[in-house]
TrEMBL record:
Pathway(s) per entry: Pyrimidine metabolism; CTP biosynthesis via de novo pathway; CTP from UDP: step 2/2
Keyword Transmembrane helix attributed: no
Keywords on record: ATP-binding, Glutamine amidotransferase, Ligase, Nucleotide-binding, Pyrimidine biosynthesis
Protein's UniProt keywords contain Glycoprotein: no
Organism: Cucumis melo
Lineage: Eukaryota, Viridiplantae, Streptophyta, Embryophyta, Tracheophyta
Family classification: Belongs to the CTP synthase family.
Domain CTP synthase N-terminal: start-end pairs: 2-272
EC number: 6.3.4.2
Residue stretches making up the Glutamine amidotransferase domain: 310-540
Protein name (Swiss-Prot/TrEMBL): CTP synthase
Enzyme class: ligase
Function, in words: Catalyzes the ATP-dependent amination of UTP to CTP with either L-glutamine or ammonia as the source of nitrogen.
Length: 547
């Protein structure tokens, strides 16, 4: 097994995740099998209980793992299926060590950061790297490891120490370190400054790790004299210094790496030239260039509550991008704060209310994504009602589906107090209820999570046709509440069709309106399995052969 470690320096948010994904794609394009691991130094066991404002979206894996959004990038770029073990956190490591200590596995030894925590980190990496993720048996050729945070962070110190030991343990020909750093350009003088990267590399080397490749984030291509200066002070060959300058879309990043022969530098360090070929990225190149050339817009109104951070809905945005590219349309997402659609906002902030409704009414389609909590719920219900009554294409995901059911019950069945018990525990018409097997006291990892099977109840429906007339599908879930099965017959008699259910027939998975051009709600999250070359069927919203 060969290992590629990606670290970051100077500042956070440089794009280590996209860089690691792009490196993995480049190596895969050279004919190698690639897997990925993300290390998050925070103390949380996983990302499941973290606010989207704090850390972006929670990405859900097939096995139910709630993980960092970077694993979504890995899956999309590499077209693989990762496991919860591919996301290592400080919380997981310490928990595993403490569990061993409680069992007496350390035979009375004093348990310390070195060697017990560092050994646990190395063992986890080796174990996770061997898990097949590409649908074929046996381990991958290369494991790309991304270390979250920035070099120098206190919380990442045990991981740095462990990785330093690990690089020595696996040997120099099996370990390649790529350091992503910032080369800022001062507007006053227009000069690319190398000092931040010099200090970052010096800090990395003082901790026992020496970079083989420098990936320098900058607004423009690095000058040759800047590369020579970095080479001299950071002890990295000039040919192994890569510029990651600003590009129109992230699909260009693997192409930047390829054009600068990053793969050759990595293959040389790992002694893989004999089994790797040249990178075959023709399809990827065509997709990146096509994305830049699109002009005809398609406007999608995204109605949610996490409007201040687009990473909160990252997979939804990517799925929309995949689908719009297949349709040769330029995606324009109009962010509509759900609360601004509500009547209360019309009194408190008439300008915001007017602007939100203008965006909603100008959209080609309306999407209500998943979420938790009651803030903005009434606004989402109004958005669903507008889409239903005005025949505007609508897709509701998770909470978005539940919202559509509540709105239908209120407007069509005239059940004015219809609601979810998540928002109103005393409602007399609970359309959405708490799932019986879910814990009410523990938040982390207690939802209905991961890949679950949905069976189509009828084949003559839009969703079944979109999925290629399959009798069932497997999609990923993340929810605590579900449509009340005792209200299903009442809703169906009024015209709402539950076309997809779980294996028991009691859990509603897909809802449609037959009399509407496109009105679909799903309890699962189709965005998590969308890929650049294979858009999610529900986001694409057209049948094979449609133009």
């Amino acid at each position: 097994m060969k290992y590629v470690l990606v670290t970051g320096g100077v500042v956070s948010g440089l794009g280590k995740g996209v860089t690691a994904s792009s490196i993995g794609l480049l190596l895969k394009a050279c004919g190698l099998r690639v897997t990925s691991i993300k290390i998050d130094p925070y103390l949380n066991t996983d990302a499941g209980t973290m606010s989207p404002f704090e850390h972006g979206e929670v990405f859900v894996l097939d096995d139910g793992g709630e993980v960092d959004l970077d694993l979504g990038n890995y899956e999309r770029f590499l077209d693989i299926k990762l496991t919860h073990d591919n996301n290592i956190t400080t919380g997981k490591i310490y928990q595993s060590v403490i569990d061993k200590e409680r069992r007496g596995d350390y035979l009375g030894k004093t348990v310390q950061v070195v060697p017990h925590i560092t050994d646990a980190i190395q063992e986890w990496i080796e174990r996770a790297a061997l898990i097949p993720v590409d649908g074929t048996d046996g381990p991958a050729d290369v494991c790309v490891i991304e270390l979250g945070g920035t070099i120098g962070d206190i919380e990442s110190m045990p991981f740095i120490e462990a990785l330093g030991q690990f690089s020595y343990r696996v040997g120099s020909g099996n370990f390649c370190l790529i350091h992503v750093s910032l080369v800022p350009v001062l507007k006053v003088v227009g000069e690319q400054k190398t000092k931040p990267t010099q200090h970052s590399v010096r800090g990395l080397r003082s901790l026992g790790l020496t970079p083989h490749v420098l990936a320098c984030r900058s607004t423009m291509v690095l000058d040759e004299n800047v590369k020579r200066k970095l080479s001299q002070f950071c002890h990295v060959p000039v040919d192994s210094i890569i510029t990651l300058y600003d590009v129109p879309n992230i699909w260009h990043i693997p192409l930047l790496l390829k054009d600068q022969k990053a793969h050759e530098a990595i293959l040389k360090v790992l002694n893989l030239h004999s089994i790797a070929g040249g990178p075959a990225l023709e399809e990827w190149t065509a997709r990146a260039e096509m994305c830049d050339s699109l002009h005809e817009p398609v406007r999608i109104a995204m109605v949610g509550k996490y409007m201040g951070l687009s990473d909160s809905y990252l997979s939804v945005l990517k799925a929309l991008k995949h689908a719009s590219l297949r349709c040769l349309k330029k995606l324009v997402v109009d962010w509509v704060p759900a609360g601004d659609l509500e009547d209360a906002t019309a009194q408190e902030n008439p300008a915001a209310h007017k602007a939100a409704w203008k965006l909603l009414k100008g959209a080609d389609g309306i999407l209500v994504p998943g979420g938790f909590g009651d803030r903005g719920v009434e606004g989402k219900i109004l958005a669903s009602k507008y889409a239903r009554e005005n025949k505007v294409p609508f897709l509701g995901i998770c909470l978005g589906m539940q919202i559509a059911v509540i709105e239908f019950a209120r407007s069509v069945l005239n059940l004015k107090d219809a609601n979810s018990t998540e928002f109103d525990t005393s409602t007399k018409n609970p359309c959405v209820i708490f799932m019986p097997e879910v814990s009410k006291t523990h938040m982390g990892g207690t939802m209905r999570l991961g890949s679950r099977r949905t069976y189509f109840q009828v084949m003559d429906c839009k969703s079944a046709k979109l999925y290629g007339n399959k009798s069932y599908i497997d999609e990923r879930h993340r929810h605590r509440y579900e449509v009340n099965p005792h209200m299903v017959s009442q809703l169906e008699n009024a015209g709402l069709s539950f076309t997809g259910k779980d294996e028991t027939g009691q859990r509603m998975e897909i809802v449609e309106l037959a009399c509407h051009p496109y009105f679909i709600g799903v309890q699962f999250h189709p965005e998590f399995k969308s890929r650049p070359g294979k858009p999610s069927a529900l986001f694409l919203g057209r049948f094979d052969g449609d133009k």
